[in-house]
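Task: sequence in, structure out. Protein: 6-hydroxymethyl-7,8-dihydropterin pyrophosphokinase.
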Amino acid sequence: MNYSDWEPIYEEILDYFGYDRCENDRSARILERLIGDRDLGIEELEAIIRGKEVLVCGNAPTLCRDLESFDVSELCVIAADGATSTLIKEGILPDLIVTDLDGTIGDIIYANRMGSVVVVLAHGDNIKEIRSVVPNLTSIIGTTHGRPFKSIYNFGGFTDGDRAVFLADALGACRIMLAGFDFEDDTVSEVKHQKLMWAKRLIEGLLNNNMGRDLDGEGDRGN
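Result:
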């Protein structure tokens, strides 16, 4: 996604949730400095995804059951943040983890040390986590909701789940499948529910504008 296409959506999200754009940008600058020369690089990230069938795993309670429908050994597996812990318990090491660092950090660091690439989002509410966690990571990519710069990318998307879908699409997945997604989860907070509605809207919009790709699945617990 070109940033010029994404920016109007981003501005709508900022207005809807009352987020501080300046703080998001400050967080992204901090992330860029902390990553330094440990940036994996877009070419290596693309090599993991391009031409592959990708399974994006959200953190809904249905994830374990949904995984029974897939042979993950044949897929590129992307975990949306908290889904990392479930995948590890199931003996599955995700190829990528898309996170704003509010999942179980120990599991994210463990998976990273075992070979998972961590795609970290910087936003105004996770500066503390960025400063404490990022120095412990290798094979890392930095992302932002705002304007990309240097080694900080923006593939589109808002919550961890839909950002993972946007990333897979942007880097050339031939098919994107979803597991552990539930847009209608009525057990979450009102703010979480609103995020799920945005995730649904964004994924559906991506599908409608990208008829050449396959996207299978149902919803996501999101961030």
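The chain has one domain: 3-216.
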